[in-house]
Amino acid sequence: MRNKEKDAIEMAKKRQSILEKSYQLFSSEGIRSVSYLDIAKACGYGTTTLHRYYSTKPKLVVAVAAWKWEQFREENKVRRPNLDFNSMTAAGILEFYLESFIELYRNQKDLLQFNQFFNAYVKSEHIDTGTMQPYQAMIGRLREQFHEVYLKAEQDKTVRTDVPEEEMFSKILHVMLAVVTRYATGLVYIPEKEFDPEKELLYVKELLFRDYRL
Predict the structure, then answer these.
(1) Residue in 34, 35, 61, 36 with CA at minimum distance from that of residue 48
(2) What's the whole-model pTM score?
(3) What span, in angstroms and rounded, lies between the C-alpha atoms of 192 and 170?
């Protein structure tokens, strides 16, 4: 008789291995160039096993993206000076989130590289809404955390509330993510001397911060 608990643990290990190996390949070699066979070989499984966990490549790609960004979200919680933000102003929370993008540049350049490949792949493959759901759910959790800024701002008036919350979230997410990605992947002109990419990224962060704080 099979041990269901043991089977569940083994399945979870295999799923994690697939996500980790896929991420390594996708972030270093690009998503379109990596096949199911490449991933199966890296994991030490057959392609049949791979299909059993993720029936299509788009489903696997989305699962990898959702897992990796969720992992970063959890790591970012540890970096927070106060887990509930209780002692911080809305402006303080907003600055923390803006700084999170700088942390991505400092410590997660591989994730920014992967994200660039991911965006191109999703667009080229015209992935349907249902397949994208795990990724969109992760974005929703990020949006819920950002909502804390607005709730605080309504009380302490340290951040503008005349700008719609969704507009503020979208602008910060897309502008900061685009900028740190370009710097992390080398898509900027690099002068021969006196070039400090982090200083320039902090400048962009400050521009957004000044635009929204009161």
Answers:
(1) 36
(2) 0.90
(3) 34
